[in-house]
Design a protein that fits this description.
Helices cover 42% and strands 15% of the residues. The protein has 269 residues and is α/β, with parallel strands linked by helices. A hairpin with a 6-residue loop joins β8 and β9.
Length: 269
Amino acid sequence: MNDPFDAYIDDLFDRSLKEQHRDAALTIVDMIENDPAALSCRLGLPLEEVAAVSSMMRAGTQKQRDECLALVASPAFEESCPQLKAELDVLEVRRTALIAQFRDSGIFCATRRKDNLLMWAHYAEQHRGVVFGFKPDSAVDSFLCLLEPVSYSTVRPSFYDPVDPLKGARPKPEDMRAFNRYLTATKSPEWSYEEELRLVVPSFVPRGQSATFLPFHPHELVELYLGHRFDVGCRGEMISAAQSLNKDVAIFQIKLAKDAYALTFDRIV
């Protein structure tokens, strides 16, 4: 990715589960004091024991509360709560599996825009390249129908928050699918001008290779836009190649607008 924040999966997992556990200690202490029944149920601890600790905390000094927090944040607490330890172990397994899966994933990106000056400069060789216009065909089970819009947010995705064992029941499979999309299709608002669509195919790229191809159906190529600086000497070859896929493809030559920072599209075929 040209954006180092984008789908940098390893970086999303840079916090260890032990660090996450220490962060969750404050939540546990608050539940001990204010909702012992919920904590008892969540962690599989005897209610009478949690209730007794809760009563002691409410009547205790700040020093005693600090000592309780230190205990909850210690590895000894995790070992004494089999359910919590089991859920953290499951989370670690998921974390390892997701990193391995995404490392060999294929990512296909498209856009709804054909006229953005920044994108022509960045992705089309400074207006020397071309833009392909596709029309997905659901009747032939086209992969293009699976494209989904990227979300733009000032908050970076986190692996841990949606599956924190202290925040509720384990996610359903459909929730995990949505969560995977959240990890791989969230970008900074600075990129919102791209109006990007994206498809992530897990474990798709053959081992040892950096990329592979997803074939589209020839009739799905419905438009071809030649950049303002496209090599005139190659224009005939490019047009012939496009028409060999779809004889009805609409072909446009890009020009610079005279009175605005914008592009115009002259149909030539």
